[in-house]
Specification:
By secondary structure, the protein is an alpha+beta fold. It has 16 helices and eight strands. The strands form two sheets. Strands 1, 2, 4, 5, 6 and 8 form a six-stranded mixed sheet that branches.
C-alpha cells in the first residue's frame, strides 16, 4: 500500500471521543509520523492531505488541515491547501454553532452518542482556525473569497466568545483589501489614489502608511510634514520585523504629520477626519472614498501596538500610490467648489 493511500485511509477512519480530547496527540500516531517522515516535496504532501479533507473523519481531517498550516509555516505554498482548508473552516463553524446550541461542552458525552461530528468539530476547530489564520494572512485572494461567503462573518461573530482564535479571524476578514481612497490636496492642486492591501480597518493604520507613501512620492516636507519614523513605518507594514522590533513596538508612538480632513465646500478642507474611525466612515464621492489633505491642524498621536497590533507575522500591509493628472484633479476640486 502506498503512503498516499495510507494517510487517506487513516483520515477516513472514525475518531472516538478520547482521541478528540487528545488534540495534537493524533500527530504522534504511527500513521501520521510515517507520512510526515516520507515527505520529500512539501507541496505534494499538502496536496495529498488537502485531497483527504472532504471525505475524512471530522476530527482527523481537521487535524490534517492543521498539519497543512504547519507545513505552510515551514515554507510550503499556501495556494496548494488554502481552498480545502477554507471549506473545512466554514463547515466546522456551522457544526460548532449547532454544538453550542445543543448544550456545548456540558453535554458532549450525550452529543457524541447522538451527533458525534458536532463534538469532533468542537475539539478540532481551534486547530483548524490556526491553519486558517496562517493561510489567510498570506493569501489576499483567499481573504476576499471567504468574505464573499455570506454566512462566515456572522458565524465568526456569534462564536467568538466560545473560540478565542476567532478574534484573529474576524480581524483578518475585516482587513481592507483591494480598496481605494482618493486624497485631494486643494492647496497644491494635487490628487492621489491609494490602493490598500492588508490594512486594518482603523484609519490610524492607513494614516501611518499613507504619510510614508506621500513622503516617498512627493518628497520630504510635503505639506510641511515631518519625516516618517522608519521604525513606525516598518511596524505598520509588518514586513520582516525582528524579535527585538516586536519587543520595542510597545514603546512606539506615532503622530499626525499631515492633515486628513473631510472634504469641504469651496474645495477647502473641513473638519479633521478621526483616525479611530473605520474606513466605511470616509465620505464617498463619484464612487471613491475621498479625504482632503492639508498641513496638520491638530497634534493627534497614537500607539501603533494598541491601535493596530500585529495579527500574524506573515501578514504584510501596504498601500500603492498613483498621482492623478492635473486635469482630473481640477475637475474633482471644481465639483466640490460647485
Amino acid at each position: 500500500m502506498s503512503q498516499t493511500v495510507g494517510i487517506a485511509q487513516f483520515v477516513r477512519e472514525s475518531s472516538d471521543l478520547g482521541e478528540c480530547q487528545g488534540g495534537t496527540d493524533l500527530i504522534g500516531r504511527d500513521e501520521v509520523q510515517a507520512f510526515l517522515g516520507s515527505i520529500t516535496d512539501v507541496d505534494a504532501a499538502m496536496a495529498k492531505l488537502a485531497a483527504s479533507l472532504e471525505a475524512g473523519d471530522v476530527f482527523r481531517a481537521g487535524m490534517m488541515a492543521f498539519v497543512c498550516g504547519v507545513l505552510v509555516e515551514r515554507g510550503g505554498s499556501v495556494a496548494v491547501p488554502v481552498d480545502a482548508v477554507m471549506q473545512v473552516t466554514e463547515r466546522y463553524l456551522h457544526l460548532a454553532k449547532e454544538f453550542t446550541a445543543r448544550g456545548g461542552a456540558g453535554a458532549q458525552d450525550e452529543l457524541f452518542r447522538e451527533s458525534p461530528d458536532l463534538v469532533r468539530a468542537h475539539h478540532v476547530l481551534p486547530f483548524v482556525l490556526l491553519a486558517a489564520m496562517t493561510m489567510l494572512s498570506r493569501d489576499e485572494g483567499a481573504r476576499r473569497r471567504l468574505r464573499a461567503r455570506p454566512h462566515v462573518a456572522p458565524l465568526v461573530d456569534e462564536l467568538e466568545d466560545h473560540y478565542e482564535t476567532l478574534y484573529y479571524i474576524r480581524e483578518v476578514l475585516a482587513l481592507l483589501d483591494g480598496r481605494e481612497i482618493l486624497l485631494l490636496d486643494p492647496r497644491g492642486r494635487r490628487g492621489f489614489v491609494l490602493g490598500l492591501t492588508g490594512v486594518q480597518d482603523r484609519m490610524y493604520h492607513f494614516f501611518a502608511l499613507a504619510q510614508d507613501a506621500l513622503e516617498r512620492h512627493a518628497g520630504p516636507g510635503y505639506l510641511g510634514a515631518e519625516p516618517a519614523d522608519p521604525a513606525v513605518v516598518r511596524y505598520a507594514r509588518n514586513r520582516g520585523l525582528t524579535p527585538q522590533e516586536h519587543q520595542r513596538a510597545a514603546e512606539l508612538i506615532d503622530h499626525q504629520r499631515i492633515g486628513f480632513h473631510y472634504p469641504g465646500a469651496d474645495a477647502k478642507p473641513a473638519l479633521f477626519f478621526p483616525g479611530s474611525a473605520p474606513f466605511e466612515a470616509v465620505p464617498v464621492f463619484d464612487g471613491l472614498p475621498t479625504l482632503f489633505l492639508d498641513e496638520k491642524s491638530i497634534s493627534a498621536q497614537w500607539s501603533p501596538a494598541n491601535m493596530y497590533p500585529v495579527l500574524h507575522e506573515a501578514l504584510e500591509s501596504r498601500v500603492s500610490l498613483r498621482e492623478l493628472a492635473p486635469g482630473d484633479v481640477e475637475a474633482r476640486l471644481a465639483a466640490f467648489a460647485g
